[in-house]
Q: What sequence folds into this?
């Protein structure tokens, strides 16, 4: 189990280049880590839970797999949705024996909570010395997300895993709602001089 409230880039949440120029992630240093395994084994599954506080699509994050101490990932995906065998920002639940989206957000854009899973039964990832499996949170780690994962693997011997947080440490962040959005708009209007005809795209 792992959980993290990820941090956006210093220049802001720039998914799709909405508020600035997008840059490239070359080494995965700030990626969310869903498995950090020492020893020999093979990776077989992942439950991935994301709570997105923005209507922007959260799924441009690429998965990066560092096998046996690699400095550069030898397996690099093309987006979160592709890791879970879908594409085009899924908004409808579906379930397959090895992958699926049993819960999708049902709010403005991609605001809200989603649960996806994939079991690597027919395509396990093998490692001899260890595996560090990571994923970006938005393109080049540009989004603040509440991420939680449960990873599954087989290993040749028992090994310690990080402690699971207590109940308070696993508590979900509150949902962002329309009242909060209106309050943000209210502050934005005040910052723009509170003119009566401010529309929102100025």
A:
């Amino acid at each position: 189990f792992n959980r993290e409230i990820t941090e956006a880039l210093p220049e802001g949440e720039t998914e799709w280049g909405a508020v600035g120029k997008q840059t490239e992630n070359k080494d995965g240093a700030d990626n969310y880590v869903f498995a950090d395994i020492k020893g020999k084994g093979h990776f077989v599954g992942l439950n991935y839970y994301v709570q997105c506080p923005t209507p922007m699509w959260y799924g441009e994050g690429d998965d990066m797999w560092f096998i046996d101490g690699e400095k550069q990932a030898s397996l690099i995906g093309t987006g979160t949705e592709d890791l879970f065998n879908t594409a085009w920002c899924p908004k409808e639940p579906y379930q397959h024996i090895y992958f699926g989206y049993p819960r999708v957000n049902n709010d403005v854009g991609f605001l809200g909570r989603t649960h996806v899973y994939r079991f690597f039964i027919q395509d396990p990832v093998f490692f001899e010395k260890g595996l560090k499996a990571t994923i970006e949170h938005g393109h080049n780690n540009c989004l603040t997300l509440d991420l939680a994962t449960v990873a599954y693997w087989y290993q040749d011997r028992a090994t310690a895993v990080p402690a699971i947080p207590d109940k308070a440490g696993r508590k979900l962040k509150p949902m962002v709602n329309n009242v909060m959005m209106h309050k943000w708009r209210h502050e934005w209007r005040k910052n723009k001089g509170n003119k009566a005809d401010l529309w929102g795209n100025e």
Remarks:
- The radius of gyration is 19 Å.
- Helices lie at 80-83, 178-191.
